[in-house]
Structure formats: structure tokens, C-alpha cells
Please model this.
Amino acid sequence: MSADHLSLEELQEDIGDCRRCSLWSTRTTLVFGVGNQRATVMFVGEAPGKNEDLKGEPFVGAAGKLLDELLESAELDRSLVYIANILKCRPPGNRDPQQHEIDTCTPFLREQVRLIDPRVIVTLGNFATKFILKTTSPITRVRGTVQQAGKYTVLPIFHPAAALYDNTKRDVLFEDFRRLKELIAPVAPDSAETSEVDSGGRDAPVQGTLFQE
Model:
């Protein structure tokens, strides 16, 4: 992979018909990412599922429909955000990503973040949160708390797919998207430069270093 890319298109061309790990042999389509290349908010999920693998676009199944509802609740549209995943290829049977797959694929994610340069990164679920924040804390302990990874503000939340199997997480997701709406709202001139967000008894902010400049 080239050290520096001038655009997402150049990065995608560099990835090509990727065969850098064994997932290429079971995937249908490589899922690069989609959205506004100058997005203020970037969402990072885990990996493509069955529908995403077939269509080549992240979050197009049932979890994607819920994500659309959540975006609407925060007065955001898909055209205003960028959505990518830790892995670009679907793991067989939707199993968890393996460490060597994460190590192989995440340099592409780092480049996407660098090129898009979002103001806020929203991590969806355990794998995205642990990677972006370089933390071992589970999503249940850090979700809904404002974090920092280098110059990027990070908001960890549950993966929307989790709410499809556990309806109690649905209200929590909408709560965290209300927090996201507040987070991206214009800051009043007399506001403090940095504000602490109530963690509701969860872990204090983690100072991730993944994107430290």
C-alpha cells in the first residue's frame, strides 16, 4: 500500500481486488465504504454482513434500516456522513474478525480516516471501539462517553445489529444518538473549550493514540 494517497478513489484503486488475507476466497464483494468524503461524522463498524457482501455497501440490511432511523433522530442524512468497517470483506458465517485480519485490513481504515478527516468518529460495537481507542474496555463500559483518539473526538456506541437481538439496546442507541447530535452542534462562543460528559457510572474517557499526530 502506498504511504500517502491523494483521494479515497486512489486508496480504493490501491486496495484493488484485495487478496492480502484469506477472506478474499469467501467474499462476494469487497466493501470499501460509502458516504461524504468531507464528512464531519464518520461511522466505523465491524465487518460486512450477508447483504453488504452482496451489494458492496455497508449497512444495507436490517441493521442499516435501524441506522437510518438513528441518523434521522440526530437530524443527519447518509449523504452527510461516511460509513466504513474494520474489515472490508465479510468473515464466513459472520464470525468475529480474527486478529491477523484486523492487522491486515486496518491500515486502509487509517487512510480513510486521514483522508476524510472527520470531526467525530462513532465506533459501532466492540471491535471498532477497541481498535480506534486502543482499549481493552468492552463497549458496555465505555458506550455513550466522549473519548479522544489523537485529534479525533470518538463516541463509542452499541452496534445497531445488537438492538435487533436485544430490544433493550434500542433505547440506548437513540439516547447515544441524541448525545451525538449535541456533540456536533455548533459550540457557543462562551462555552468551555472542553466539556466533560456524564458517563452514567461507566468508565472515564480513554485517551486513545491510534491517530495521534
